[in-house]
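The methods section describes the discrete structure representation at length, but only in general terms. What matters is that the chain and its backbone geometry are given together, residue for residue. For illustration, here is how one protein appears when written out as sequence plus structure tokens:
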Amino acid sequence: MKLEISPSILSADLAQLGREIELCEVGGADAIHVDVMDGRFVPAITFGPIIVKACQRVTKLPLDVHLMIVEPEKHLEAFAEAGAALLTVHVEACAHIHGTLQAIKRLGIKAGVTFNPGTPLDALWNVVDLVDLVLIMSVNPGAGGQKFIAHSIDKVREVKRILAEVGSEAVIQIDGGINTETAKAAVDAGATNLVAGSAIFGSPAGIVGAIGALRNAVN
């Protein structure tokens, strides 16, 4: 499966967001990752459907919307209408994760499920037939620039094993502390999609150069 890179606009210069997304596209990014935080599931408050809609106007890349919010089922339709191509929800935030994933699929878009660093993967077996993507958090959610949690690599390997056992072609995404040093270990373990924020938007090499450096790091 082709390695995908999804720059996270959480680390972008929001005063120049349109231009920075354009540079991601020029650099060969595969999607734009939008971290939605509500101040409840995580301490920070970030983006809503209005930002997703604004992103859609400036790029043809799919919008990968990561809902770090409680009761995400109340907001699925709004994000889908705003232009999300994929909605990823946290198993920890959903009272009925199976039903929430079904609701995403009914909207005609892709569905993903997310596991925090301290959350076991047991629930994946019960929803693996519904998901297009499994996101392993390699930091605790809520802020960019955190240090990579090493045992996340073991969880990536376990997700790969589970998907292979059931014959799923779901994407394995990893998010948190991804840079040229951690990317290779993640991909070697089975990750097929890398979310990177500060390693791309904060790089001295610039956005285009940083995306290229990530690809080169795993080759």
